[in-house]
Amino acid sequence: ELTRIQDSAQQQLEEFKQNKADRELKVKKCADVSTSKQIKLDIGGTLFKTTEETLLSQKDTFFTAMLSGSWEPDPDTGAYFIDRNADKFGSILEYLRNGEV
Q1: What is the rounded CA–CA span in Å between residue 53 and residue 21?
Q2: Most buried of the four, 13, 30, 67, 99, by CB within 10 Å?
Q3: pTM surpassing 0.85?
Q4: In this structure, are residues 84 and 43 in contact, taking their beta carbons and an 8 Å threshold?
Q5: Are 17 and 59 in contact (CB under 8 A)?
Q6: CA angle 60, 39, 42 (to 5 degrees)
Q7: Where are any strands of DSSP class E within 29-90?
Q8: pLDDT in tens, 3-29
């Protein structure tokens, strides 16, 4: 009986440590993102705001090319214009932020 209780306590401790590590990683990501350069995107007339770090989280993408210096944001709005449907763009940002849709 004592062994079963010890095993259960050990398992709970390991789960707690993993959850703590996961929380600490999320806090670190939030801190990193909060200091990253903000980017405005005009997607088909809808304005989105995100960070450079988010847009560059995946290598060799459209956003990597866009932020390489080849494109300039609109001088009046400061936003990069992308002529696409904005309805799906939130899911793209969610993937870039978290790796999940």
Answers
A1: 22
A2: 67
A3: no
A4: yes
A5: no
A6: 95
A7: 38-43, 46-51, 79-82
A8: 888 888 889 888 888 888 777 777 666
